[in-house]
């Protein structure tokens, strides 16, 4: 059973870079699509982007200029970097597997427990 | 880009039926997925492909999708069903994951 665990600094200073890791256990990073999602306090879910290990990526237009995804196959880890953060980037950040079926992406399962990142001024 | 619209809140008495809608342009032609999120927890998939339930999800949870509205129905509502519910689709046009704004279900 695949399990995901996000980790990273809980506090980031404004204008700096937010860096998070998602560790995958019980399954392989290969041949899967992985997605980052965030949720600002009291708000809904916001899709950040999706990556296929070793291949394509797709990003939210509102974040595309500041987001980078990477993957480390031997460590079975995903990474997210978000540059030039502001208070608006304060959120719980989740990683999740995007399941494919019938030749297209569909649902997200499982999700990590999420990690809260606060941007301080 | 594709927009999904959910009511911010729905209230229901215990034992009754709750219906949470997710509106979108011709959403009936899309596959809709639903997540339950309890306070302080990560979202959990409860319905995929409009109507299917993952293992372990009670039969009280069901889904439908037609026209411009997808609906999550929770029968015989329990206090433990109090949570936020989110709908989601994959927008093939933009190649983006799209979420609705989420609906807070309150059990009276």
Q: What does it look like?
A:
The complex is a heterodimer of chains A (121) and B (108). By secondary structure, chain A is mostly beta strands. Chain A is built from no helices and eleven strands. Chain A has strands spanning 3-7, 11-13, 18-25, 33-39, 45-52, 57-59, 67-72, 77-82, 91-101, 104-111, 115-120. In chain A, strands 2, 4, 5, 6, 9, 10 and 11 form a seven-stranded mixed sheet that branches. Chain A has a four-stranded antiparallel sheet with strand order 1-3-8-7, with no helix packed on it. In chain A, a hairpin with a 4-residue loop joins strand 5 (45-52) and strand 6. Chain A is globular, with a radius of gyration of 14 Å. In chain A, 32% of the residues are buried. Chain B has 108 residues and is mostly beta strands. Chain B has strands spanning 9-12, 18-23, 33-37, 44-47, 61-66, 69-74, 83-91, 96-99, 103-107. In chain B, the strands form two sheets. In chain B, strands 1, 3, 4, 7, 8 and 9 form a six-stranded mixed sheet that branches. A three-stranded antiparallel sheet of chain B has the order 2-6-5, with no helix packed on it. In chain B, a hairpin with a 2-residue loop joins strand 5 (61-66) and strand 6. Chain B is globular. Chain B starts with 8 loop residues before the first strand and ends with a strand. The relative contact order of chain B is 0.35. Chains A and B meet through strand 5, strand 9 and strand 10 of A and strand 7 and strand 8 of B.
Keywords:
heterodimer, A: 121 residues, mainly beta, seven-stranded mixed β-sheet, 11 strands, 0% helix, B: 108 residues, six-stranded mixed β-sheet, 45% strand
């Amino acid at each position: 059973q695949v399990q995901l665990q996000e980790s990273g600094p809980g506090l980031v200073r404004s204008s700096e870079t937010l860096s998070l890791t998602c560790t995958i256990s019980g399954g392989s990073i290969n041949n899967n699509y992985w997605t980052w999602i965030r949720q600002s306090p009291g708000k809904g879910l916001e899709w950040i982007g999706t990556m296929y290990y070793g291949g394509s990526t797709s990003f939210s237009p509102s974040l595309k200029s500041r987001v980078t995804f990477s993957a480390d196959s031997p460590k079975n880890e995903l990474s997210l970097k978000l540059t030039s953060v502001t208070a608006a980037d304060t959120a719980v950040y989740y990683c999740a597997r995007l399941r494919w079926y019938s030749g297209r992406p569909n649902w997200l399962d499982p999700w990590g427990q999420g990690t809260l990142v606060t941007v301080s001024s | 880009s594709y927009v999904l619209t959910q009511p911010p809140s729905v209230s229901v008495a215990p034992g009754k039926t709750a219906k949470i809608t997710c509106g979108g342009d011709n959403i009936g032609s899309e596959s809709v997925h639903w997540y339950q999120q309890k306070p302080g927890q990560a979202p959990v998939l409860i319905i995929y492909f409009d109507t299917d339930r993952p293992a372990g999800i009670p039969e009280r949870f069901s889904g439908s999708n037609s026209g411009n509205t997808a609906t999550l129905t929770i029968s015989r509502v329990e206090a433990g069903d109090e949570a936020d519910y989110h709908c989601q689709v994959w927008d093939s046009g933009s190649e983006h994951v799209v979420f609705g704004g989420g609906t807070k279900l309150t059990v009276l």
